[in-house]
Amino acid sequence: MPKRKRPGRYPSHKTVSKNIRKWLDELYPETPIPLEHTDNYSLLVAVLLSAQCTDARVNTVTPILFEKASTPAEMIKLPVAEIERIIRPCGLAPRKSKAISKLSQILLEEYQGEVPESFEALEKLPGVGHKTASVVMSQGFGHPAFPVDTHIHRLAWRWQLSNGKSVEQTEKDLKALFPKKSWNKLHLQIIFFGREYCPARGHNPYDCPICSKYGRQELFEEFDKKA
Q1: Catalytic: which of 18, 149, 173, 207?
Q2: Are 72 and 107 in contact (CB under 8 A)?
Q3: Contact criterion met (CB below 8 Å) for 84 and 97
Q4: Which of 91, 107, 165, 220 is the most interior residue, by most CB within 10 Å?
Q5: CA torsion sign, 83 to 89 to 94 to 97?
Q6: Cβ(114)–Cβ(107) under 8 Å?
Q7: What's the longest Cα–Cα distance across the chain?
Q8: Whose CA is closest to 157, among 219, 93, 102?
Q9: Which residue ranges of the chain lie beneath pLDDT 50?
Q10: What is the pLDDT of residues 165-223, one digit of tens each?
Q11: Which listed residue (18, 131, 185, 207) is catalytic?
């Protein structure tokens, strides 16, 4: 079997980012939000639940939870043990259930039951880190943000857009490479692409539309060893 060709010389990051954005726009002109929700509160809870859990699984759990409590006022009346029981399939249930109950209390006491529209306020809520706040700010309020999860972090490294040392550095690098107006749509496009063409496991860089052109040499070396 002839050896397949690896990518040649890596062009400038400007060229690579421009081409990647063009390809993703062609592949995913529409970017529906993966987590089902009806308002910013249900989005916030859904994103919190998605930590170390798939969107698909979250979408099977949230309807059950929100049928019992769809507002902060209703949620604080629900025993934490009951929240934990419902969200158990999402993993980390003890911690997440306490965070959902506590943040709901804070929303009532400090924000009239509304989700605050600022990174600073969101990141002060229990269980809400920068990535969760970024998703709510971008998908809920429409503010430019580039939420970087483990999937985007991995793909940015594979495509040589970031050194992959931390998600914080990856976010900074991607924001520098792509126009601000593209961030909200682009982060979803990268997630969709990863699921379809560039998965965490069983990834073939020779067949991946982007890795085959701009992938790190380590990807091909590792794949060839296993093959």
Answers
A1: 149
A2: yes
A3: yes
A4: 107
A5: negative
A6: yes
A7: 67
A8: 219
A9: 1-2
A10: 899 999 999 999 999 999 999 999 999 999 999 999 999 999 999 999 999 999 999 99
A11: 131
Q: Which two tokens stand for residue 54?
A: 């798939």
Tokens describing residue 109: 């006491």
Q: Which of 75, 35, 50, 4 is nearest to 221 (CA)?
A: 4
The count of C-alpha atoms lying within 13 angstroms of the C-alpha of 122, restricted to the half-sphere facing its C-beta, is 25
Q: Are the CB atoms for 43 and 34 separated by under 8 Å?
A: no
CA distance 164 to 176: 15
Residue given tokens 């592949």 in the structure block: 27
Q: How many CA atoms lie within 13 A of 49 on its CB side?
A: 31
Q: Which helix (H) or strand (E) holds 28?
A: none
Two tokens, residue 177: 């490479």
Structure tokens at 78: 């629900």
| Amino acid identity at 20 | I
**What pLDDT was estimated at residue 3?**
52
- Give the list of residues 6+ apart from residue 18 with CB closer than 8 angstroms, or none: none
